Amino acid sequence: MSDISATEAAKAIVRRNTEEVQGGGNFELFEELFADDFLDHTPQPGRTPDKAGARELYKVLRPAFPDFHAEIHWQLADGDRVTTYKTYHGTHKGDFFGIAPTGRKIAFETVNIMRVRDGKIAEHWGVANLFSLMQQLGALPDTPKS
């Protein structure tokens, strides 16, 4: 496989995770896309940095935001690492880390880097604007405008 086709294949794997697993709730595909030795370098609080922790986080998001999906703005690949900038959207219809459903529509940005090895997601690094998400859910006060 050429470098270009390997890069495009890695981007497609990451895109399938975003669209079909996170957005569609296809957890059978999750099992196919993630390496058994997956390592999350930036796990969410209370989550283990392994495949089980990622699966658990994804499964928490589905009932909390049944229409959870991402708008991918762009992807860049460098070797086996794929960087994706996206905005997640959803409607808060279920409990989310102790926050009762508000019915509010949410949107928050993330940047993720995923390393793809042998056709599977092997590592993750990410930054999400969770401050904005918590403000939208009413868990934090709005920042005063100056």
Can you give keywords for this protein?
single chain; 146 residues; alpha+beta; Nuclear Transport Factor 2, Chain: A; five-stranded mixed sheet; 34% strand
Secondary-structure topology with pairs:
Layout: H1 3-22, H2 27-33, E1 34-40, H3 51-64, E2 69-78, E3 81-91, E4 105-117, E5 120-128, H4 130-136
Parallel strand pairs: 1-5
Antiparallel strand pairs: 2-3, 3-4, 4-5
Helix pairs in contact: 1-2
Number of helices: 4
Specify the biggest β-sheet. Answer: 5 strands, mixed
Q: Which architecture per CATH?
A: Roll
CATH class: Alpha Beta
Distance between the termini: 54 Å
Mean pLDDT: 94
Catalogue the unreliable spans.
none
What percentage of residues falls in helices of 4 or more residues?
Answer: 25-40%
Total strands: the figure is 5
Named CATH topology? Nuclear Transport Factor 2, Chain: A
Structural class by SSE content: alpha+beta
Please, how many domains? 1
- Percent range for β-strand residues: 25-35%
Overview of the molecule:
The protein has 146 residues and is of the alpha+beta class. It has a single domain (3-136), classed as Roll (Nuclear Transport Factor 2, Chain: A), CATH 3.10.450.50. Helix content is 33%, strand content 34%. It has four helices and five strands. A hairpin with a 2-residue loop joins strand 4 (105-117) and strand 5. Helix 1 (3-22) runs antiparallel to helix 2. The protein is globular and about 50 Å long. The chain starts with a helix and ends in a 10-residue tail after the last helix.
